[in-house]
Amino acid sequence: MTMAPIPAVALTPVAYFPENYFLENLVVRADGSVLVTTVLQKELWYVPSAKPGTVVSPVLLHTFKHPILGIVEAEPDVVIVSVCDLYHTHESQTPQTVPVANSNSRKGDSHE
User: Fold this and answer.
1) 34-38 and 23-28 as β-strands: parallel, antiparallel, unpaired?
2) 3-state secondary structure of 42
3) Where are the domains of the chain?
4) Of 23 and 105, which is predicted with more confidence?
5) How much is the pTM?
6) Strands across the sheet with 23-28, in order?
7) What is the C-alpha separation between 6 and 72, in angstroms, rounded?
């Protein structure tokens, strides 16, 4: 069987995170922005939509007490985050609803 040729692709960074960050879950939103969770830091980040060829700065939205297992945008500007105490009790926490309206103006809110 003949294999199709591999297409040429170009990867272009749109944002840079601090060194040693482990990016895990992504939610690509209708406006082209992206919500990103980090495993080790237990954080939720907002990456504004970027014009082709530009780099944007990610914005820290929330820091959680426990690692983040999943994320979904349930409706515009409302995100449900699932967290779990993986290393001690192994208990899953009740999913938390996190408002992300005006994400580009928010920074550092802390939630359990």
Assistant:
1) antiparallel
2) coil
3) 23-106
4) 23
5) 0.73
6) 23-28, 34-38, 43-47, 59-63, 109-110
7) 32
